[in-house]
Design brief:
Keywords: Signal
Mean pLDDT: 90
Oligomer: single chain
Low-confidence stretches: 1-27
Shape: globular
Organism: Streptomyces mauvecolor
Distance between the termini: 56 Å
Number of helices: 1
Strand content: over 45%
Number of strands: 16
Protein name: Secreted protein
Length: 210
């Protein structure tokens, strides 16, 4: 009797597992074909009014930043769909600031825009900027920031929203004036929204993955 019940339980369990596997939704495949609109290649410009580089409790804020570059359709995952060159932080009469004083940042470009995922319902791509390299100077301190920065791109608004993960960016080559403030190996955060348009127009470029 116990043997019969045990066999019945095993059969029922196997049947349930088979049903569960059969009815479970398939995992969506990662996009490998990326199309840039309205045309490819496409040049773009982008501006931001809210860029913040933060390190060890020091916020370096830019109320103006701009960038330019090119976008092109690509295949693969991740896929390199954009080259960002140049990037400027602050401008004449509107410098980036901190409680230590004005901040001067020189970006060494190009940087690369990579995409990894796409939601067709919202028109939002996920990805990251690689090859980031910039020299930051504030008061008597200067240091280099390198690494990557994750973010999203929204087709409807042209918003490239950047919000770095905890250790994506790293400080190197700090000057003596940085002692006690910024050290080699520190990990700053970088956040901001850049709104992109096709060069010379008000049209937002689009990125579509499939």
């Amino acid at each position: 009797m116990r043997s019969t019940l045990g066999k019945l339980a095993l059969v029922c369990g196997a049947a349930t597992a088979a049903f569960t596997l059969a009815t479970a939704p398939a995992m969506a495949a990662s996009p490998t074909n990326w199309v840039i609109g309205p045309n490819s290649p496409e040049s773009f410009t982008a501006t931001s009014s809210n860029v913040v580089l933060s390190i060890n409790g020091i916020d370096m804020t830019c109320t103006y930043s701009d960038a330019g570059g090119s976008l092109q359709s690509a295949t693969g995952n991740p896929a390199a769909v954009g080259s960002i060159d140049p990037v400027h932080f602050g401008r004449s009469g509107e410098p980036c600031t901190s409680f230590l004083g004005a901040v001067d940042t020189v970006a060494n470009t190009p940087w690369t825009l990579n995409v990894t995922d796409y939601d067709a319902g919202s028109g939002v791509s996920q990805g990251y900027i690689s090859g980031i390299n910039a020299r930051v100077s504030v008061a008597t301190c200067a240091f280099t920031v390198t690494g990557t920065a994750h973010g999203t791109y929204t087709n409807a608004t042209g918003d490239l929203a950047i919000a770095t993960n905890a250790t994506e960016l790293t400080v190197s080559d700090p000057t003596a004036g940085c002692s006690g403030v910024v050290s080699a190996g520190d990990h700053p955060s970088f956040n901001g929204d850049f709104f992109a348009v096709v060069s010379g127009t008000s049209t937002h470029p689009t990125i579509v993955g499939s």
